[in-house]
C-alpha cells in the first residue's frame, strides 16, 4: 500500500514538472520574439534563428514602380534571411489608404508601408521642407541630397513618431499641363489649375499667378473637358495613364515639385528584431530603393514618349525663364520653412 502511494506521488510530481517546463518554454519564446498588434509579426524559433511573417501595406497596383520595388524588397529579405523573414505585401490599398497605413505602422498594427511626403509631413512637419517648389534642380541633385547626410537626418526624424525610415523612393517631378499652350510664367496668369487640397500647393499656384482649384482627382478629366479648369499638375506617368493629355495636350516641363517617398517600418516591429536581422532589413530596403529609382526613370521616359506620340506639345523652360518661376515662389520658403533656411541652402548647394 505504501509503495503504491509513493508511486502515485512520484507520478504526480513528474507530471507537474513537465507542465511547468512546458509553460516556461512558451513564455521564453513569446518574450524573446514580441509581435506587433493584430498578429502582424508572428515569430517562432528554428535552427538558424527566429522566423517572422510581416505585413506591408501598399496603395498602388502591382504594376506601379513602387509596388515592383516592394516585391524586390520582399524577395531580397527572404533570400538573405534564408527564408526566416517573410513579408506579405497587400497592394491596391487592401489594408487602408495611405494615411491609414502610416497610422497603423505607427501604432504597431502593421509592420511596413510606403508613403508620400504629403502624408508624412502630418507626422513630421520638417518634411515640408522637401516639398518646397523648385527646391531641387534635377533628379540627380535630389538623389545626391537624399543619399547623403541630409537625407539620413530626414529618415531619422520620423523616429519621433515611433517609426523607422528605411529608405527613399522616387515619385518623379510634377509638371503643369494645360488646355492652351504655356511657354512662360505670364502664360499661367489667371488660369484655373487643379491642385491637391494642400495649402502649400495652393499657395504655389497663386504665387505663379494662376488660380488654384482643389478638385477630386477622379474629376480632373471631365473638369478639363468641360472647361471647369484650364489645367492641372502631376507626374508624367499619371498624366499619361489617366489620358489627361487628350483634354490638356500642352505639357510644361517646369519640374516644380520633386517629391520623394519613404519606406517605413514600425518601431515596435523593428525593436523585435535582432541587430543582424535589422541589418538585413536595412540593406534590402536600400537595394529596393535603387531598383525603384530605375523603374521610375524608365516609366517617366516611356510616358513622355507616349504622350509625344499622341501629339502633346512639350515645352521646356530656358534657365532664365525657369529662374522667374523660382523667384516667384520664394515667399513660400519663408512661410513654410523659416526655421530651416540654412538647411535649404545646404540642399540647394548640393551638386
TrEMBL record:
InterPro entries in the cross-refs: DctP_fam, TRAP_DctP, TRAP_DctP_sf
GO BP: transmembrane transport
Gene3D superfamilies referenced in this protein's UniProt entry, alphabetically: Bacterial extracellular solute-binding protein, family 7
One Pfam family, short name: DctP
PROSITE patterns given in the database record: PROKAR_LIPOPROTEIN
Keyword list, A-Z: Signal
Coiled coil: none
Transmembrane stretches, start-end: none
GO cellular component, one term: outer membrane-bounded periplasmic space
Keyword Signal: yes
GO molecular function terms attached to this record: carbohydrate binding
Record's signal peptide: 1-21
Identification of the protein by name: Solute-binding protein
Designated gene of the protein: dctP
